[in-house]
Amino acid sequence: MTLSLTSALKPSAALSVSYLERRRLFFTLMTLPAIIYVLVIGVWPLAQGIWFSLYEYNLLKPGRTHFVGLSNYVDLLFDAVTRGAFVNTVIFTVGAVTVELLLGFAIALALWRDDRFNRICLALILIPVTITPLVVGLIFRALLLADYGLIGYYLAEFGISDPRGLFANPSSALATLIFVDIWEWTPLVALILLAGLKALPGDILEASEVDGATALQRLRIIIIPLMLPSILLALTLRTIDAFRVFDSVYVTTGGGPGNATNTLMLHAVKQGLEFFNIGRASAISNLTLICIAVIAAGFILLIRKADRKANGR
C-alpha cells in the first residue's frame, strides 16, 4: 500500500517541477523585450558616450581621432564657457525649484479641501503640465518678443523691459527662463504635495485643533514634518528635470545673448552638433549625468530618512 501511494505521488511532483520551470521561462521571455530595450536605448548609448569622451574625436577630422584619456574632462575644468554653463544651470535649477516648491505648497494648501470648486481649479491649473517644454518655449518667445509680442511689445513700450525684449537682455534672459519653467511645472509640484496632504492622518490634525493649536502651529509642528517625504519627492523630480533643461532654452534664446543662458545640456548639443566635437560633447554629457546621479542619490537618502522619521522608526 505504501509503495503504491509513493509511486502515485511521483508524477505529481515531477509535473509541479515542470510547471515551475515553464512558468519561470515564460516570465523570462516576457521581460526579455524590456531588457533588450533598456540595453539598446539606455546602456549602449551610455557606454558609447563614455568611450567617446576618452578620445579626441571630431567628425570633421575623423582621421585625427586618438585616445586622450581624461583630458576632455580636465579641459572642461579650465574652460570658461563650460564653467559659465554650469553656473547658469545651477542658478536656473535653484531659482526655479525653490519658487515652484513654495508656490506649489501654497496652491496645495489652498486646494486641500475636497469640493467641486477645488477639483475644477486643480484640473485647470494642470493644463501647463500637459504642454511640452518645446511648445511652452515657443509660446513665451512669441509673447515676449519686443517687436510684435502680445506682452513684450507693451513691456518695451512702457519701458518695463529692454527695447530688444526680455530674452535679448543678458540681465533678464535667465530670470525670464526661470519664470517660464515656474509657470509650466509649479502645478506638478502642487499635485504631488496635494497628494501628500490628503494622505495625512485626520485624527492628529483634529486633535491638535481641539487642543487649541493655531493654523501656523499645525503647519510648522505637524503638517510639514509629516509632509517631508512628499516634499523631498517633489524636490527630487524637479531638481533632476531642471538640471537637464534644454528644450525651452534652445527655442527661446539658444543660449544667448552671448552665453548668458547657456546650460550644460545646451552646451553639449552645441559641441556635438554645431562644432562636431563628439569627444568634448560626450564629456559634458557625462559630467551632467554625474551631477544628476549625485543629486538623486542625496535626495533618495533624505527621503528614506524622512520616511523613517515620519513612521517613528
Automatic annotation (TrEMBL):
Keywords annotated in UniProt: Cell membrane, Membrane, Sugar transport, Transmembrane, Transmembrane helix, Transport
Signal peptide: none
Short name of one Pfam family: BPD_transp_1
InterPro entries in alphabetical order: MetI-like (IPR000515), MetI-like_sf (IPR035906)
Top-level taxon: Bacteria
Compartment annotation: Cell membrane
Keyword field contains Membrane: yes
GO cellular component: plasma membrane
Tagged with keyword Nucleotidyltransferase: no
Span of domain ABC transmembrane type-1: 86-299
Listed transmembrane segments: 25-47, 85-112, 124-154, 174-200, 221-240, 283-303
Bilayer topology annotation: Multi-pass membrane protein
Identification of the protein by name: Multiple sugar transport system permease protein
Source organism (scientific name): Rhizobium fabae
